[in-house]
Amino acid sequence: MNIKSILAKPFAKQVTSRIRKKSSNAIEVQQKVFKKIIKQAEFTEFGKDHRFSQIKTYEDFKKNIPVVDYEDLKPYIEKVINGEPDILWKGKPLYFAKTSGTTSGTKYIPLTKESMPTHIESARNALLMYINETKKADFLGGKVIFLQGSPELKEKNGIKIGRLSGISAHYVPSYLLKNRLPSWETNCIEDWETKVEAVIDETINENMTLIGGIPSWVQMYFERIVARTGKKVGEVFPNFNLFVYGGVNYEPYRNKFEDLIGRKVDSIELYPASEGFIAFQDSQVEEGMLLMINNGIFYEFIPADEFFNENPTRISLKDVKLDVNYVVILNTNAGLWGYNIGDTVKFVSLNPPRIVVSGRIKHFISAFGEHVIGKEVEDAINSQTIGTDITVNEFTVAPQILPVSGLPYHEWFIEFENKPDNLDEFAKKVDESLQEKNSYYYDLIVGKVLRPLKITLIKKGGFNNYMKSVGKLGGQNKVPRLANDRKIADELIKFIE
Questions:
Q1: CB-based contacts of 454: which residues, under 8 Å, 6+ apart?
Q2: Which residues, given as ranges, of the chain have pLDDT below 50?
Q3: How far apart are the first and last CA of the chain?
Q4: Residue-level pLDDT at 340
Q5: Among residues 171, 95, 129, 169, which one has the least CA distance to residue 20?
Q6: Angle between helices 3-23 and 116-134 (to 10 degrees)
Q7: In 3-state terms, what secondary structure has residue 138?
Q8: Taking the model in full, what pTM does it have?
Q9: How far apart are CA 497 and CA 494, in angstroms?
Q10: Cis previous bond, 352, omega within 30
Q11: Helices (H), strands (E): how many in the chain?
């Protein structure tokens, strides 16, 4: 065991104890965060416009602060981009994290000197809690890689601009610098396919112990390694035993990963958004991710089925319930207020508060009133693949409202690595599983408003080719699990078997 592994264990125990103590008093901690960020932003332009000085309670806050999206905050953000201080948060932000919005085009999310450290500490703490629980720390002695965006940053009016993963690359702890791959030069390659090959060149003969990134893009890295060597990833990297991921649910990829690796490896799920580091998996045993209640974020939640109502219920952590699909609203020490990040979550534990990401409020199918969400379609397909030889590379779902004949249906575009022996039976079982998870969908099927789902096969590599065709191959881009229209579906037709 190397010295880093030895030293990490007592430190991991100390950090875990501190986090557990905070999490057991989550409501109290959130109230302190609420008061602190309101006080710190009181004299900003936004704070003055929304009478922060008069806010004493959460009820006051809701009266003064509307729920907004990026477009609503854009007039303030443009002032910050132009170099004006004290607009959304005191002073100027350190960075703008550049993201691709589905409705707003490119978005610029502020990162401040108060918020930036929480992104780094949370990722570190996820590893430390894993070490404390499992007593496994040997990975610290090997090489680690996080497939991420370019760390090259631009600058405007004294504020640096880049992708969140690229910004984070500037904050790699000193004790990991010698372990970290790829090189700075390779990390700066913009073209994803060129970058993956260069990453393989630099890692293929190294002692890789920890690999991280969005599952779909790590999958490409693994596939290229297997193609180049003719060996399983676990043979090429015999000491690789920890996969760290975020951005999408890992379960639909798990069978494929285990096949590529040749064995099971432990995994840690992170929930980092440009708007704030929201949660991470704190246990290999318990379900869900631990909500980061002390990261300078005051959370609000709106039941997803009320979100588009004129006056939806809006609550704090104190009033959430288990197994309700909530839209997450953030108020942060980076100057986002009443901000809808578009994600939906469900609580699987209240003490401590643990969540699972259930989807996107704009990524759902409700063409007939069924309101099917991402987690439901993922769970439905996982019910028929986990523990089998069936392997799904990627999939997405869209409504077919105007079929050539017969009733409308949900069309599932699936790229299999290993297909089921009987595709019709597989589709039937997935549909039945979805009916069990969504009573509205069940009623529509039983009432013969919809017919059961139809699977359209996408040829191998089809989803990557689609993403490449729309300029979204690699980085932090990912295929939406489902949509309420056929924009993606109509493009995918080009890649069917």
A1: 400, 409, 410, 411, 412, 427
A2: 102-103
A3: 50
A4: 94
A5: 129
A6: 110
A7: helix
A8: 0.82
A9: 9
A10: yes
A11: 18, 21
Cα–Cα dist 144/154, whole Å: 27
The encoded tokens of residue 474 equal 């690699």
User: So what's the pLDDT on residue 375?
Assistant: 83
Kindly state the tokens that stand for 194.
């060129």
Cα–Cα distance, 331 to 65 (Å, whole number) = 10
The residue among 163, 152, 156 whose CA lies nearest residue 98 is 163
pLDDT digits (tens, 9 = 90+) for 83-130: 999 999 999 999 999 886 544 568 899 999 999 999 999 999 999 999
Report the half-sphere exposure of 324 (CA within 13 A, side-chain side).
Answer: 18
| Amino acid (1-letter code) at residue 437 | K
Residue type, 61: F
The token duo for 310 is 């004129």
Which CATH number applies to 364-495: 3.30.1490, 3.30.300, 1.20.1440, 1.25.10? 3.30.300
> What is residue 340's three-state secondary structure?
strand
Q: What share of the chain is helix, strand, coil (3-state, %, to 5)?
A: 40, 25, 35
Q: Is 375 left (phi over 0), alpha (psi -120 to 50) or beta?
A: alpha
Q: What is the distance between the alpha carbons of residues 59 and 335, in angstroms, rounded to a whole number? A: 20
